Structures
1.
Amino acid sequence: MMRQAHWNLKFPFVIVIDMKILLKVLLLALFATVVFIPNDMIASWAYWSLFLLMFYILYLYYRFTYYVSEKDVARVHPDVYKYSVYCAKVPPMTSEDLIRGRCIVTDTHFELYQKGLGNSNSISLVWSRKITDVVSIETGKVVGLRHGLIFTLSDGKKDSFAIFSASKVYDSLITTLGWKEI
């Protein structure tokens, strides 16, 4: 008698959730090791490599939790888009966390996609604005010491995005939209 394997559709999701938990536990264990075990009990090279390992695991956790790639967006938004950049939208209330995700520019809209809303690891649209509603785009400080883009809207409100290299993204975005620099 031949048996067939049945693929569980939640399997990739379970792996990612388990990976996040595993990374959290590893970070906690490494931190405890570095803090509570004196550095003279461990070889010097091993002690300092624990720091490197801790930073690498922190980077992996960030990638699994926040980073949205162009491939992720393509699964949700199959239409062609003109431009894409990883950024963080500054929320209206300063007490809230930044909304990290991938902002894309279509023919008619700016759209921001975020990973893992709720209990899923899926990508979802969290912000959208018509291009015609944006009067101007400028660079500047958007929150704390972070620089980014500031979209001034036709109703006078502003949408801000923290972006690592704001001036390069600004130039590319203005070129993509076909606007003239002021």
Note: The two ends are 74 Å apart (CA to CA).
2.
Amino acid sequence: MKFRFLFHPAFAILVFGKLSAAEVPIPLTEDYLPAGRVSAYLEDAQEFLRKKPKDSYAPRLTQDLLMVAKATGKDKIAEEARRSLLFRYVNSLQAGHLLTSLGSDPKALRGFLLQEADRVDEAEPDFPARFCRCVLTAVRRTGPKLLEDNAFRLRLLLLAEAAGAHPVLATMPRSVSWGS
């Protein structure tokens, strides 16, 4: 077959043009920030995440939103993006990166998680289960030092009970001691 090259993806890109940003269905920082359109980016990113929270690009957009919000001093938006990464997209690459960076200081991560646990009344009904998944993922990625605080372990136990996930505690690594 002389014309097999016609079916090669590289040939199609050459003929029909390169992949465009329009094919990535999320607001990209590259399209907003160089032109100084920070507010527009923040609004469009939040709107996209409200409308399509289950989109496969949502974790990446959430991480971008977190970085832009932190860099521009939009603390409320940054906190909401961090919450989304840890409690909605906990199994994503982006959440893993956030957990390992926060997990380098177990006390800081524990403090953040305790603050979130205090919001349980205003959170979504499935928050206790999401909290437990986040803690389990954090312990698996950063080690058992996160659980060295008795108050934190008690809060985790209460939220696990509320989630009907008390058996989640049995899945903790063996190096975690629940005593003392």
Note: The chain has nine helices and no strands.
3.
Amino acid sequence: MGANDPVQIVTSNTLTTTIAKTKANNTLIVCINTYNASSISISSVKLGTASLTQAKTASASVFGTTAVFIYYLSGIAADQTSVVISGSGLNVASGSGGVSIYEVPQLDLTSALDETADDSSTSGSSWTTGSSGTLSQAAEFVIATAAGPAGSLSEPAGWICANDSLTVWVSGYKIVAATKAQT
């Protein structure tokens, strides 16, 4: 494993997920993908009692509502074992969405999730985000998540996917060595 490879990756189809004990000062990133809920909102994402910060939300209406959320918490406490997501209209059951949780060491805590991009298109077979913009530093941990109609997703080249089943959601990461914009 490299310096920024996740120390744990957990995928789940529930809003309360048990994870291995966390290590102090790492960063926790939670990707939430939900599909076919009529109205979707998240009121909190917590690691133990600590609230995570919302980094990105994207949604589109295609045969219902598709939404993806990314939350993070830098400088996490040691020995935490539970991630709890609260909200309304969330459906992360198998075939409708999912949750992926990444614990990553040695991230720059001052600029976590400093570039974002999304594409809330409602048609077509190309699921791309457009450009993230130039990254602020080389050797960054890049995270991506997408949700869509069943059978519409495939594993993108160069990414390490967290979930094996690419039914209606996908989440993955890659570690880059340059400040090149990501798509």
Note: The longest strand covers residues 27-37.
